[in-house]
Amino acid sequence: MNGMTEPQRHEKYDRLIGACHALAPVRTAVAHPCDETSLRGAVEAAEAKIIKPVLVGPEARILALAATLDLDLGGLQIVNTPHSHASAAKAVEIVRRGEVDALMKGSLHTDELMAEVVHDDTGIRTGRRISHVFIMDVPTYPKPLFITDPAVNIFPTLEDKVDIVQNAIDLAHTLRIAQPKVAILSAVETITSKLPSTIEAAALCKMADRGQITGGLLDGPLALDNAIDRNAASIKHISSPVAGDADILLVPNLEAGNMLAKELSYLANADAAGIVLGARVPIILTSRADNVRTRMASCAVAALYAHARRVAVAGIGKLAD
Known about the structure:
- By secondary structure, this protein is of the alpha/beta class.
- The chain contains eleven helices and eleven strands.
- It has a domain of 151 residues: Isopropylmalate Dehydrogenase, CATH 3.40.718.10.
């Protein structure tokens, strides 16, 4: 695989982006798009009619950067702020006022943006734990592979993992996966007190049985090999509809998730579209290392999720009437 010279086609991301073509662009606050990656990503997603960006940052700096990059901002709205901290605060404020349906990270640090998102008085938290999901397009896997949580929760508790799993299941539903299969990862597939992650995996499965987690099919603990490879599961005599066919991989902690995602990216030529869930709107986290396809896919996932939430809220409103 390392010797490949031709780029792999990523039909899974193409389908995600294509699914947005029938939908109206999603209003998105872009916090501090002051480098080429973030500004170009917002403009290209706007040209693809996936999002309708509101650029929040130093106006003169954004305009100068656009001129340098020969980018046509095409009348996009710019909300002027003096610096990155103010950009994060203003972008979150715009979300809180209901003027946009998604939030996108620009060239500021992730911690700076997320600090405003989770602020007790002015943030946009909900009752759900905030978590991150990578939707991986892995050329050697037959369908999108969700990995959670590789970026927000460092050492999640059992209660945190309930929300992390539910966030990922809800996202899978918006991408038309009716009953996502959730593999709860550990180093082994047997339950032992020596590995707390195996105990938590068993507890999460029982919580799903009791309706505390809904909409997905859970199994665990599972090692990575028997979560994604049917032969590996068969060799270890694991009989499970999840084993060998997982849609979602719940990792024990951030370190495991981050390393797994990067291993797939750099050793298996995978792309990783990232999104943060659990806030009032989906949050698009882009990286300087992202290619155009990955940035577009991240925007597409957020757009599909935002549209699904809007439909759900409208439905609840009709029931209330």
